[in-house]
Amino acid sequence: MTNFTRRSVMAGIGAAVALPAYLKKANAAEVTLKLHAMLPAPAPMNTQFFEPWIKEIQDASNGAIAVQLYPSMQLGGKPPQLADQVRQGICDITWTLPVYTPDRFPVAETLALPFMVTNAEKTSVVMHKLMDEFGQGEYDGIKTLAFHTHDGGKLHTRNGLIKTTEDLKGLKLRAPNQATGELLASLGAETVFFPVTEMVVGLSNGVIDGCCLPYEVVPAFKLQELTKFTSAPAPAERGLYANTFALIMNQRAYEGLSDDLRGVIDAHSGMALSERIGKQFDTFEAKGKQVVIDQGNTIGEIPSETLSEWREKAAPIYDKWIEKLNASGHDGAAIVARANALLDGAA
């Protein structure tokens, strides 16, 4: 073997030794992470977010990380159990709503109060900042990957637009969470709480007159066929409500990865991911609205003066929430004030 050849071989060996572990095992997964999801496989959250995100992680790790998606609660249990499932290691990653376990993650629930949403992208960034500043201890023992919200909810009804408080009186409405239900009840509506999957039956048989949901939910449940009117806040106003979401990972699964592979997870999580999911939900929202338009339904605007009246009615709900945050060891007034400031554009 010539000196040139020998040097080339040795250099190649040295380079191989220097490569990160995941590059030396291209296309051979070192670890497979189980992602447990509540929605059916065809849901846009799975096909348009999770599947591309999973592929990005796989490609960035050169195949060393595989993520297996289990939709429709295939690993068992019910959606409110997902946070515990990831903590216990039943799954490695999950996507869940803090409101599914009321009062357990109060900082993360704060933006689910009425009128705490602009659009999904901006409000998701606000939520991530709020959690960084006040909510780090809420997910103790869990690796948090992203936080986000959907766009503001609208009132979808069978028999007429909602433009005044009087229009709500006596309406039977399915509420999306406890705080929004309290607000609607204070305005004269009769609110009921049941899973969104039961909402279709309720609208079909007349048990409820409408519901409060974002447009993005419309296509999945064919709300454009079950309701004929949508009432949305005036464009300059905040949305009626938004539920909050957390993308979380088992801490032991994260810490068990090599430094290189933890770096891959870190590069595909955090503030940028929260913003990205929020932007994705704004896209879902636009598509849902177009479905309503194409159906020929009537879309109306809830005037600013009506919304001002409703926001005054929401004041006791905020006070009650501040007390709840205080009881959890937080400065409730500071959290709510900071959330409002961020929504209004503070840095």
Automatic annotation (TrEMBL):
Tell me, what's a Pfam family for it?
A: DctP
Where are the coiled-coil regions?
Answer: none
What keywords tag this UniProt record? Periplasm, Signal
Subcellular location(s): the record lists: Periplasm
Whether Signal counts among this entry's keywords is yes
Keyword Coiled coil among UniProt keywords? no
State the name under which the record lists this protein.
TRAP transporter substrate-binding protein
